[in-house]
Amino acid sequence: MSNKLTFSAEELQKLETIKKRYPEPKAALMPALWMAQAKWGWLSDEAMTCVAEALELPLAHVRGVATFYTMYFKKPMGKYHLQICTNVSCMLRGGDTIFAQAKARYGIGHNECTADGRLSLEEVECMGACGGAPMIAINEDYHENISFEHVEKLVASLP
Length: 159
Fold this sequence. Notes:
The protein has helices at 9-19, 29-40, 45-55, 59-68, 88-92, 95-106, 148-156, and strands spanning 80-85, 112-113, 119-124, 136-138, 141-143. With 159 residues, the protein is of the alpha+beta class. It has two domains: 9-68, Arc Repressor Mutant, subunit A; 80-156, 3-Layer(aba) Sandwich (Glutaredoxin), CATH 3.40.30. Strand 4 (136-138) and strand 5 form a beta hairpin. Helix 2 (29-40) crosses helix 3 and helix 3 packs across helix 4 (59-68). The longest helix is centred in the first third of the chain and has 12 residues, at 29-40. It starts with 8 loop residues before the first helix and ends with a helix.
């Protein structure tokens, strides 16, 4: 019995559609990695191998791209991934304090996950919302002008 990860026929068709948008398959790598992460939650060696095979690219190239970008998780993360911006605008408005409070409250540090797998925490650089600093993202939902109390309410409201 094989534990090899594979894309479904429907996912492979979606990858073919994505590849047609570009002059060469290499250009479809980032959306393919995003698909793999959405499917498996993170990019294990097996997931990166699956992407490399689907796009007919060298595994070293796939691994190089996946490890360069912080948006791709190289280890399992929580069901809810909490990203807190601590770059200049957010830091000046309390982002670093919010991050420190989240670390203390949830008992995890940067790129760590709670024991139950519910939450993971990441300190991030600019997320492009300097005018609404400080800001956080929970998975793909962005929240601006937040306080730690706001963070706690958002986390408490998660299913």
